[in-house]
Amino acid sequence: MKLSVIIVNYNVKYFLEQALLSVRRAGVGIDMETWVVDNNSVDESVAMVKEKFPEVHLIANTDNPGFSVANNQAIAKSQGEYILLLNPDTVVNEDTFHTCIQFMDAHPDAGGLGVRMIDGSGAFLPESKRGFPDPWVAFAKTFGLARLFPKSKLFNHYHLGYLDEHETHEVEVLAGAFMWLRKSVIDEIGGLDESFFMYGEDIDLSYRIVQAGYKNYYLPTTTIIHYKGESTKKGSLNYVRTFYKAMIIFAQKHMGKQASLFVLMLRFAIYFRAFLTLVSNFFKRAYLPLLDAVSIYIGLYFLRSFWASYHFKDPNYYDETVLYFNFPLYILIWLVTVYFSGGYDDRFGLRRLARGLLVGTVILAAVYGFLSLEYRSSRALIVLGAAWSLFSTILMRFVLHFIQFGNFDLGRVAQHNLVIIGDKEESERVQRLLRQAEVNKNFIGTVSPEQEASDAEYLSPLRQLDEVVQIYKIDELIFCSKDVSSQDIMYWMNRLGPSRDYKIVPEESMSIIGSSSKNTAGELYTIEIRFQLAEPMNRRNKRSLDLLLAIWLLLSFPLQALIVSGKLGLLKNAWQVLRGKKTWVSYVPQDQQQEKLPALIKGVLSPLSPLPIKEVTSRTVQRINLLYAKDYQWQTDLDIIWKAYRKLGD
To answer: What number is the average pLDDT over the span 502-518?
Structure first.
């Protein structure tokens, strides 16, 4: 047997389906086998593979042992002369396997091979070719020197930026998304090091291949798509910690005397990158409230002087306490009510913003009466401040919208112009999928996959796709993989450039897959239920209800002890809810959480708690949990809690 393809999957069913379809196409005429190792996915990946790809050898783990262990499970059973370790969020070209076999057969010194990779926007992925991360290389990458000088041999050895992406090169590190390996070399040096759970195992294996006297090559004559980051979400603290800890394992294993210095640098890098991640995430979430706070405060500052001079005829009428007590209090209440109204979930949602400010003003009017006389500034300042807050925050959103989109159309969502590339029947199927998935796009028409096409049915043949994109100002293209080859898809992605969105619909699939940026994970349109429980505002309201009820129960515990059964249990539950370890209402417990339901921590109560029912079928439980997640409102929890109040200590 010539080739064994091994794919490790974890909860990326739709991407796995597309990857396997591309593998099936690329394997035509080759004596090969395909292995999928599933690391305990809960998205029905295993069922999909069994149903749609009966030729695939499937290993279904009952836990998640990690990337290295899973690959080694399949490597031990593989029969191919060559082994390809392939990510599930990839699409290989029809010529990829043939091209790689020809190269490896012609280069017996090659232990491993990587190919040119592009992301879902058609942009080249620099990790297609990499160097070993010695202390200087790690320093240059961590502190951004590699990004500042991408073509420098001194500063960007990590991505070998000085090597032409379109030329074949000997390289040091193969990318884990596509590692073509000679089986005899793996038998000689051993498989992936299982001390690496995720990340670093590709560097370690590449290093051992070179140490054994073989070479790793980068081959640009075939290209694959890698929807970067879909299997492992990046930009999180967990990613930073896991990645750099993998580098520490590599350093301690291979660097000898240099290891201590390298490990010290890497430990510093963990904290440095974690700090940058925290700061970045904070400003992504907080910049708009901060801008609102500053603009409101500036307005209140001038309103104070204006009203004092105009109404009281005394510029110094107001005490200085309004500047450091009243105004910050007003702003805090307004921002909090806008936050809970959802005004920061939708940056340009003026209705939510106005609603939040109105509620905040009502609360301020109530709070005003409770303040001692020395802290009561003026009801007029509250009214004027509310008017200014509404004006300034709306103005801020118009300015931000203009900066981002070049227009002031806050109330209108710009529709993307979309074309579908495929035959008439498949295009109609894709259009139905888009309607069912409630994707709002301006469908321009269909481009034929053939070189000639009827003007009555198609916008143009495929060879004129660039003209269609230019004439109709197309923002998004959907390729039907049943009718358009992966080679043609990648050709047009390269030709049209990364300024547009590209998606692919696999044959007979209910999903449309793509990615609009090399810095974001893959995305898809698929027919799925929309869960109200997944909405940020509902999640926030649920947590707020949890906290308020927990505080109330703790403060009024002597009274609650007369009502609730399980007094100690009530104290324990309230404390765990405060700490975020429990929620008052969650799903009905079951052996394994259902596919795609929004995650919830363990609950004290469930939708079944108010009912005098002891046993229900698993199907009923699934249906109840589905309805709870789909139709959730905070009043749902309140109703369940009210009806099952005595059980809060269970």
So the answer is: 77
Q: How far apart are CA 181 and CA 6, in angstroms?
A: 11
**Helix and strand tally (H, E) in the chain?**
22, 18
Answer for the pair 485, 449: CB distance below 8 angstroms, yes or no: no
SS3 track for 77-106: HCCCCEEEEECCCEECCCCHHHHHHHHHHH
- What residues pair up with 83 in beta bridges, in sequence order? 4, 181
* DSSP calls for 430-488: HHHHHHHTT---EEEEEEESSSS--TTT-SEEGGGHHHHHHHTT--EEEEETTTS-HHH
**535 vs 62, 254, 468, 626, 634, CA distance in Å?**
31, 47, 38, 15, 12
Joined tokens for residue 427: 């295009």
Which tokens belong to 11?
A: 């909860």
- Beta strands of 63-207 (E only): which ranges? 82-86, 90-91, 110-118, 169-171, 178-182
CB 137 within 8 A of CB 131: yes
Q: What is the pLDDT of residue 70?
A: 93
* pLDDT averaged over every residue in the chain: 85
What is the Cα–Cα distance from 310 to 303, expressed in whole angstroms? Answer: 10
Report which of 205, 192, 200, 211 is spatially closest to residue 248, judged by C-alpha positions. 200
Domains of the chain: 3-129+165-231 (3.90.550.10), 285-405 (no CATH), 417-526 (3.40.50), 532-647 (no CATH)
The model carries a pTM of 0.70
Q: Are 631 and 611 in contact (CB under 8 A)?
A: no
Q: What CA–CA distance (Å, rounded) separates 171 from 132?
A: 9
Which positions ≥6 away from 300 have C-beta within 8 Å?
327, 330, 331, 381, 385, 388
Structure confidence by residue, pLDDT tens digits, 435-477: 877 777 889 999 999 988 887 889 999 999 999 999 998 999 9
Please state, in angstroms and rounded to a whole number, the distance separating the CA atoms of residues 330 and 322. 10
634 vs 641: CA distance, rounded Å: 11
pLDDT reported for residue 519: 45
Asked if 342 contacts 349 with a C-beta cutoff of 8 angstroms, the reply is: yes
Q: Would strands 523-526 and 511-515 be described as parallel, antiparallel, or unpaired?
A: antiparallel
The whole-angstrom separation of Cα 437 and Cα 230 is: 20
| Phi, then psi, of 46 in degrees rounded to 5 | -60, -45
What would the DSSP string read from start to end of 208-241? HHHHTT-EEEEEEEEEEEE-TTSSS--SSHHHHH
